[in-house]
Amino acid sequence: FGYSPRELIGKPIEILLPESFRKHHTQHRAGYFKRPVIRPMGIGYNLSARRKDGTVFPVEIGLGHIERETGMEAIAFVADISERKRVEEALQAESDKLVAQAQRFAHIGTWEINLQTGETIWSDEFFRICGLDPKDGPSIEVNLVHPEDHGKELAAYEQLLESGTPYQLEKRIIRPNGEVRWVLAEGQMITNTADGVKKLIGTYTDITQQKQAQQHEFELSLEKERTRLITEFIQNTAHEFRTPLSIINSSVYIMTKSDDAERRTSKAEVAVEQVSRITKLLDALLLMVKVE
Prior knowledge:
alpha+beta, about 50% helix, about 290 residues, five-stranded antiparallel sheet, three-stranded antiparallel sheet
């Protein structure tokens, strides 16, 4: 927030809010102490905070409370999510851009095979999708198919020859320059009513941009889910720490106030037990970091 700790002592919490929210927040704050509830981080509110220099930035706020001998205290956990917002907006903009490009520049190439003569015809767009020069004429198309996709395409092609069953599948092709492209391949069998000659015809639709857009969408969803899980994990971890710390705090307090040696020993054992609990929790966290 840009303040030194000393500057904030005695100031109302509203000093950290945009001016337009301060008046209403005073009422919300008063209402919270009448009916306190726990509000987890990242539950969908679009919240903002204000720095000392007047800049406003997006935040997530977790709200809780704790009962002490002096009364109830509210505790807020504030996370600056400016960077995450920028990443999400950039990913969304990039994803939208790729989707728009895919819709605007989608091209379809056609192919045809005469089963009687074996003659093969490719359209110019088919050559372009495959990264080939139309002047060179059709080559053996199977050489263009990605090795991992060759099996499923061969099975679909054989079924088309045997039973005339049309197929539609997504596959990768490898251009002569090594570039990998995604295509939607379709094929069917037709019979010329005039001479009875059977032909195989089909199309290639370059869907590489759509695939890239889907990948960006997936990455965006993955980042959102990762952020949600991290936020939830932090909330749970904070709770797991808060409980033993509260017990330690109360135990130490009683130890300092009690003259009963037996009671002090008992409270000391409780504190040691809770320290052990925290140590195990820390070990678990370190293990999770290694896994990450």
